[in-house]
Write a structure and sequence with these properties.
The protein is mostly beta strands. The chain has helices at about 10-15, 215-220, 220-225; strands spanning about 40-45, 50-60, 60-70, 75-85, 90-95, 110-115, 120-130, 135-145, 150-160, 165-175, 180-185, 190-200, 230-235, 240-250, 255-265, 265-275.
Length: about 280
């Protein structure tokens, strides 16, 4: 159970990994108010008989809590994430709660605390201590930025009681105010090996989920870019495979997505956005 609490979207992925329908949008992600003319307060995802709903709670202009519930492959789930911030609105801790956690051997709530460079408004690292199947373990993530302040790498570490060891790495490139690529690596004991390269294409409309400053914590793929991803191409290395997901949006009067239909091969899902 490595790096369970690296960021909230990772926990969400754990709970929804059995879904058959792909999406460019993480239906259990954590949006913020930075990118849109109106706040995104709810997002619904439907894929066949599966459906999920995410509700977003704000404190002033920033996100403070989310709740998720729904049914995936006939199984119900619930998830709550509480966000604490400092006076500069950077995230200092992320607490995730779910009734499913004890069923899979986890604590009923998981907390990751972040250390921040306040002068640069950047995350330095995050640490989470929890138990899995009664065994105390720890996850950590280390952030590295370039001279312009853009995140270039995230490296995760795992400690099962024998000391921290490298686990995964992601490398990022950019195209203006949008994410261009993510390269994902796994450490198999002999250094990092490339697992996949993800490439993005975007529209010119407003991404209501943009919160670039906190995207390292909330999930770079959803929350960094100023515009909405219209195509995601994932090239895996072993086994070699290419997966292309495209999305067709309709937009509201604020140039924000109203709906999105995601397509990957013969699989489709529909996302509906609600604002206030």
């Amino acid at each position: 159970m490595k790096n369970l609490l690296i960021a909230f979207p990772v926990v969400a992925l754990l709970l929804t990994a059995c879904t058959k329908e792909p999406s460019l949008e993480n239906g259990n992600g954590t949006p913020a108010s930075g990118g849109g003319a109106a706040k995104l307060v709810q997002m619904g995802v439907r894929a066949g008989t599966d459906s999920t709903t995410t509700n977003f709670v704000y404190s002033g202009a920033v996100l403070s809590e989310i709740t998720d519930d729904g049914t995936v492959n006939g199984q119900s789930f619930d998830l709550q994430s509480k966000i604490k911030r400092n006076s500069a609105n950077l995230i200092t801790s992320l607490t995730t709660i779910s009734s499913i956690f004890p069923q899979i051997g986890l604590d009923d709530s998981l907390v990751m605390n972040f250390v921040i460079d306040n002068a640069k408004s950047q995350y330095i690292y995050g640490v989470s201590h929890y138990s899995f199947m009664g065994q105390p373990v720890a996850d950590s993530i280390v952030y590295s930025y370039d001279a312009s302040g853009k995140l270039v790498t995230m490296i995760t570490y795992f400690d099962d009681g024998t000391g921290y060891s490298p686990d995964t790495k992601e490398e990022y490139t950019y195209n203006g105010s949008n994410l261009a690529t993510i390269k994902s690596y796994t450490d198999v004991g002999a250094g990092f090996t490339l697992d996949a390269t993800t490439t993005y294409e975007f529209d010119t409309k407003v991404n209501p989920m943009q919160f670039a400053a906190d995207a390292p914590v909330l999930g770079m793929g959803d929350f960094y870019s100023a515009n909405n991803a219209t195509k995601k191409t994932v090239v895996a290395t072993s086994p070699a495979a290419t997966t292309i997901t495209s999305v067709a949006y309709t937009y509201n009067s604020n140039n924000q997505p109203a709906t999105g239909v995601n397509t990957s091969g013969s699989s489709t899902s529909t996302v509906t956005y609600h604002y206030q």
